[in-house]
Amino acid sequence: MNGTNGDVDERAQASDGQARRKPPLAPGLHIVATPIGNLRDITLRALDVLHGADLIACEDTRVFAKLASHYGIAAPIVAYSDATQDDAEPRLLRALAAGKRVALVSDAGMPLISDPGYRLVRAALAGGHFVTAAPGASALPTALALSGLPTDRFYFGGFLPAREGERRRAIAAAGSVPSTLVFFEAPHRLGPSLADLAELLGPRPAAIARELTKLFEEVRRGPLDELARHYAGHPNVKGEIAIVIGPPEPAAAPRPGAVDEALRLAMAGASVKDAAAEVAARYGLQRREVYARALELKRGMTA
């Protein structure tokens, strides 16, 4: 009896030992997702990669130091951001050429999604190096899932431009896309961006997702115009923000003359191309058709 139990115990221990033995980390570039707020959202595989890496490229060494300290990650780190990539990239490529295991992380979420990394991945692939990813947390799908808006098709526009004219052009260009829209935004620009979104896209259903996975997580849902009014009265909002906007409804035909009026008004302060894009987004019309009509009106105005 005791012998039988002993055999079972030995087999269990052997099985447990095999489970704990992980395959060696392959040389190459490993793109690693990190938590977007809650440190417990890191994956077991991400920890394996970060513990096994010879060098870790991180967006901000001070931010990554908190994660490294929490999980006992001791690999050397190098800053890799928009400002430092020119200096850091040659060092990282030399490490890859030497057969090292290099991990790439951003401050939060999946690298390359509105974060640095594209240049390094492209250079690593061009150099024939192995490139893989340990996926994980990302604000983009998290905001979509919590928005209550359609998720079968979506368009991700990254961060909206800071300059008003460029921002309005970006909104107009995305406005006619027949899918849910997702943008990232900085807290101090949320009010102006929502005002432009509401003006150009109308009262589409939307959600503002803020501080996702953190202690003060908030998702506020409502029509764009209501959300614009709310945040105009609350300008001191903080945290990382995602704006999710429902797809356009089939537009009713505008009243006779409305498009021409809108085009004349828009062309008074913008180029023909930008004015046409803005009006097309507002009325859910084909941009080419509106642009052609804008050219006709422009010729009539200058004749």
Walk me through what this model shows.
With 303 residues, the protein is an alpha/beta fold. It has three domains: 24-137, Tetrapyrrole methylase, N-terminal domain (Cobalt-precorrin-4 Transmethylase, domain 1, 3-Layer(aba) Sandwich), CATH 3.40.1010; 140-245, Tetrapyrrole methylase, C-terminal domain (Methyltransferase, Cobalt-precorrin-4 Transmethylase, Domain 2), CATH 3.30.950; 258-302. 47% of the residues lie in helices and 17% in strands. It is built from twelve helices and ten strands. The strands form two sheets. It has a five-stranded parallel β-sheet with strand order 3-2-4-1-5, with helices on both faces. A five-stranded mixed β-sheet has the order 6-7-10-8-9, sandwiched between helices. Strand 2, helix 3 (61-71) and strand 3 form a beta-alpha-beta unit. Helix 7 crosses helix 11, helix 8 (190-201) runs antiparallel to helix 9 (224-232) and helix 10 (258-267) runs antiparallel to helix 11. It is elongated. 31% of the residues are buried. The model has no long low-confidence stretch (mean pLDDT 90).
List strands and helices in order, with pairings.
Blueprint: H1 2-20, E1 28-32, H2 44-52, E2 55-58, H3 61-71, E3 77-79, H4 85-97, E4 101-105, H5 118-126, E5 131-134, H6 139-147, E6 154-159, H7 164-175, E7 180-185, H8 190-201, E8 205-210, E9 218-223, H9 224-232, E10 241-245, H10 258-267, H11 272-283, H12 287-302
Parallel strand pairs: 1-4, 1-5, 2-3, 2-4, 6-7
Antiparallel strand pairs: 7-10, 8-9, 8-10
Helix pairs in contact: 4-5, 7-8, 7-11, 8-9, 10-11, 10-12, 11-12
